[in-house]
What we know:
single chain; 250 residues; mainly beta; Porin; 12-stranded antiparallel beta barrel; 2 helices; disordered N terminus
Amino acid sequence: MFRRDSIQMMVPLLLITALLLAGPAVAGEDEATAENPWESSLGFSFVSTSGNSDTQTIGLDFAVTRKPQPWGLDAGAYYLKSENNGDTTAERYGARLRGERALSERWSLWTGISGEHDAFAGYDMRAIVGAGAKYIALAGPTHELSFDGGLTWTSEDLIGVEDRDFLGGLLGLDWAWHPSEGTTIGERLVWFPNFDESSDWRLRSETSIEASLSSKFALKLGYLLRYDNDPVPGFDETDTTTTISLVVKF
């Protein structure tokens, strides 16, 4: 569970996020005459084998986004679990919430919070709150490219060692390529430095290929790489996850 001082640190940014989400009503934007800025999706993956070994893997991923006009939102939750002969070999779940306010066609401000549980990577909970700016370098239609950066506060409930809180940063890149209608190749790359301890930095890379089957359904291949330069003692530096999912859009 979060420590009291960590929760107190999160409250101001949660309030800012709530104000961002309330922005559309304040702005009084007439969306009835504009293109619907909202998108939502639900991804489901399941793999099961039997015989010489019994394995099951299940994954769920929900996301809802709103393009900044001028207020935006990115929220989601996920769950992944693998079992081998009845023993759990991987379990990870988490959620995120991020509000965004466009300043121009290229620049915007953001603030958000995320939390993740992964005992197999050495932490019961890793919570991150942050705020920063985003710059759009390419706006499509074939290529989309943006960069974001900011300050973060991380609270970690670790396994086998003392819990810790620290001030850090975030530098990210978002790229999407649409080679044909209904096909998207994407990459999200994020570097998390720790300002208290320079050797304790993390890198997260999420690569995906999505192909539409219809206006509502798509197949998605994802590859997630997480690297921790200073992991909890007894745990590996690198974790990778490959998923094939059926995505429902609504």
